[in-house]
Amino acid sequence: MKLIDGKKTAQDIRAEIKEEVASRTAQGVRAPGLAVILVGEDPASQVYVRNKERACQEAGIRSVPYRLPASTSQEELMALIAALNADERVDGILLQLPLPKGLDADRCLLAIDPAKDVDGFHPESVGRLVQGLPGFVSCTPAGIIELLARYDLPTEGKKAVVIGRSNIVGKPLAVLLARPGRFGNATVTLCHSRTPDLAKECREADFVFAAIGRPRFVTADMVKLGAVVVDVGINRTEQGLCGDVDFEAVKDKCSAITPVPGGVGPMTIAMLLKNTLQSWRQRLGLC
Ligand code: BQF
């Protein structure tokens, strides 16, 4: 079994980004800017936002925090997004989800300029992904494909099972895996809570991507010998962070596996920086 080290890979990518930012800014180009909006006090969201801001800072990306109370109105939030759309020094707009009750996330995401949609959640970004057009790709699925590429685990011609049909992970991941290319061209099965025999679907898969949101949901009997297992789960339990895969049981059966923590999670952050860098290049005509 090969352990797929997302923490190390994400560090490598962040170092590459830092180098590009440093060399451009040394020539007088302004630094990339990312606006980070956090509404309310959700403890997990606070951790994620801190992770993202720290990563930006280390890479030379200017992160501009907007911490708003849970009592913020939809119109106030829409006005902030409009102001950030118009701000030339802002290359990316990150609206941390979930939003507190009473706020309409879809309406907010629709208001973000697609050119600054570094989370890839705008319907235009999703449409571009589905149609195979260039655009921002949701960070977690993009990070997963990047991990497969950097570990040279091609999906071409293989059977892939994605468990979970969320807009943020499962659906875009299934689309990426079915795209042309060495780290695409998979025969993809998108499974969910209404799939009649999930264990059978998984057992037939060369690649299993677990994005269910239930601790240790994928057990050893669900995994084919030699399969690649990617654990996207971030579950908080009494014993700490835990994935959607029963790691201890599955690790001896698969050819490669991502741990939690230190697998897909850090790659999500690295891809956010990569998307911000991409937006900055495009907006300044650096590419
Ligand atoms: C790690 C997220 C569910 C819902 C909303 C590193 C992160 C997590 C884990 C992180 C996530 C999950 C983020 C590890 C951002 C990933 O070492 O394993 C980093 O900060 N994430 C988010 O912003 O919103 C979420 C999961």
Give a structural overview.
- By secondary structure, this protein is an alpha/beta fold.
- It has two domains: 28-113, Rossmann fold; 139-265, Rossmann fold, CATH 3.40.50.
- The protein has ten helices and eleven strands.
- It has helices spanning 6-26, 43-59, 74-86, 105-111, 123-131, 139-150, 170-178, 198-203, 247-250, 264-284; strands spanning 2-3, 33-39, 62-68, 92-95, 159-163, 187-191, 207-210, 228-231, 235-237, 240-242, 256-257.
- Helix 1 (6-26) packs parallel to helix 10 (264-284), helix 6 (139-150) crosses helix 7 (170-178) and helix 6 (139-150) packs across helix 10 (264-284).
- The longest helix has 21 residues, at 6-26.
- The protein is globular and about 50 Å long.
- It binds ligand BQF.
- Residues 48, 51, 234, 260-263, 265-266, 268-269 line the site of ligand BQF.
Q: What portion of residues belong to β-strands? A: 15-25%
Ranges with pLDDT <50 over ≥5 residues?
none
Question: Would you state the CATH class of the largest domain?
Answer: Alpha Beta
* CATH topological fold name of the largest domain: Rossmann fold
Report the average pLDDT across residues. 98
What is the global morphology? globular
* Gross CATH architecture of the largest domain: 3-Layer(aba) Sandwich
**How many structural domains can be distinguished in the coordinates?**
2
The bound ligands are: ligand BQF
Largest sheet: 6 strands, parallel
What is the radius of gyration computed over CA atoms, rounded to a whole number of angstroms? 19 Å
CATH level-four homologous superfamily name of the largest domain: NAD(P)-binding Rossmann-like Domain
Helix content: 40-55%
Number of E-state strands: 11
Please state how the strands of the largest beta sheet are arranged side by side. 1-11-8-7-5-6
